[in-house]
Specification:
It is a single chain. By secondary structure, the protein is an all-alpha fold. 70% of the residues lie in helices and 0% in strands. It contains ten helices and no strands. The chain has helices at residues 7-10, 12-26, 32-46, 49-61, 66-70, 83-96, 98-101, 105-114, 117-139, 149-154. Helix 6 crosses helix 8. The chain is globular, with a radius of gyration of 15 Å.
Length: 156
C-alpha cells in the first residue's frame, strides 16, 4: 500500500483543528485507558490500520494486558471489562455505526448510568475525534507501523 498524501501537510490549519480536539479529549478528565479502548474499538470497526497500530501501542505502553487487547472486538462475550468500560464500548459502537441504529435508547440509558452529563458529552467528543481521524487516515492511506507511543506523552 502506498500513502496517497499527508493530509496534515496539505491542510495545516485543518490538522491543527483536529489536534486541538484530540488534545481536549486527552485532558477532559476521562480515564486514559478507557479513552484508548474507545479509540481502538472505533478504529477496529472502521478498519483503520494506522489508528489500530497507534492505540494498541498506547495501551501496551500504559500496561494494558494482551488479553484485553485481543478480546476487545468480542468485549460483550468477555468478562475482562468493567461496567463503565462496557457502557463506553456500547456507546462507541452506536455512535460509530450511527446510520445502523441511530443510537438506541437502551445504549444511551446504559451510558448515562455510568457517566455524568459532562463525561458523556466528552466521551462522545472522543468518539467523534477518533472517527474523524479514522476517516482521514483511511482516505489518504496513512501507512501504519511507524508510530511510537511515548513521543506523544513527552510533551505533556
Amino acid at each position: 500500500m502506498k500513502a496517497r498524501m499527508d493530509f496534515r501537510k496539505a491542510s495545516p490549519p485543518g490538522a491543527k483543528a483536529m489536534a486541538e480536539l484530540h488534545a481536549f479529549v486527552h485532558k477532559c478528565g476521562l480515564e486514559q485507558t478507557l479513552l484508548e479502548l474507545v479509540k481502538l474499538r472505533a478504529s477496529q470497526i472502521n478498519g483503520c490500520a494506522h489508528c489500530i497500530d497507534m492505540h494498541t501501542k498506547e495501551l501496551r505502553a500504559d500496561g494494558e494486558s494482551e488479553q484485553r487487547l485481543y478480546l476487545l472486538d468480542a468485549w460483550r462475550e468477555s468478562p475482562f471489562y468493567s461496567d463503565r468500560e462496557r457502557a463506553a464500548l456500547a456507546w462507541t459502537e452506536a455512535l460509530t455505526l450511527v446510520t445502523e441504529s441511530h443510537v438506541p435508547d437502551e445504549v444511551y440509558d446504559e451510558a448515562h448510568a455510568q457517566f455524568s452529563d459532562e463525561e458523556l458529552a466528552n466521551l462522545s467528543l472522543a468518539i467523534v475525534a477518533i472517527n474523524g481521524a479514522n476517516r482521514l487516515n483511511i482516505a489518504f492511506r496513512t501507512i501504519p507501523g511507524s508510530y511510537r507511543p511515548r513521543a506523544r506523552h513527552a510533551a505533556e
